[in-house]
Amino acid sequence: MRILVVEDDKDLNRQLEESLLNAGYVVDKAFDGEEGHFLGDTEPYDAVILDIGLPHMDGISVLEKWRSEGRDMPVLMLTARDRWSDKVAGIDAGADDYVAKPFHTEEVLARLRALIRRAAGHASSEIEIGPVRLDTRQSRVTMDGTAVKLTSHEYRLLAYLMTHKGEIVSRTELIEHLYDQDFDRDSNTIEVFVGRLRKKLHSDVIETVRGLGYRVA
């Protein structure tokens, strides 16, 4: 899953990035509203963490522009604790949820997981397909109840496919959601990761749809 963090406080931005990376996400960063708007308008994200008080363009304006342009990714807005009016404005502008500063990063991660689940139509933090179970809260995969050791890239690929179970996901879409904007992207690596997952899971849960991509169902 690929997340955009738009926060001008460099320390907080870095803190969020580290927490997201440790939780298994891919992260792009922006430090002002104009840069954030550009990235959100041109790159596909599974969710965005957006601060209200940004230089050059405030978070409310960024969000309003995204929504008016048809960008529907889940947005978690960061607000000041004593500014209830910011929370109302954020929700009215199209935010899906908000967290008041100061906050614990665990709360941000939990709310982010919930937003991504809801966007994909899942109510639970666990997704089960045949003998394979994905626990998005623990970033853990089990096969018939036994933990499966995966690399970060293998986990991200499997998590994306299982979150979008039943859908055909192209290699291009996987690349866009598994790597950040600066990564040297190569579609051949997707086939390598799929092959490794099939061996580790000892299962045909990942189906190749010839000429289109992959699907789990």
UniProtKB/TrEMBL annotation:
UniProt xrefs under Gene3D superfamilies: 3.40.50.2300, 6.10.250.690, Winged helix-like DNA-binding domain superfamily/Winged helix DNA-binding domain
Record-listed 4-aspartylphosphate modification sites: 51
CDD domains (UniProt xref): REC_OmpR_EcPhoP-like, trans_reg_C
Record-linked Pfam families: Response_reg, Trans_reg_C
DNA-binding positions: 124-217
Domain Response regulatory: 2-116
Keywords: DNA-binding, Phosphoprotein
Name recorded for this polypeptide: Response regulator transcription factor
Source organism (scientific name): Pseudahrensia aquimaris
Lineage: Bacteria, Pseudomonadati, Pseudomonadota, Alphaproteobacteria, Hyphomicrobiales
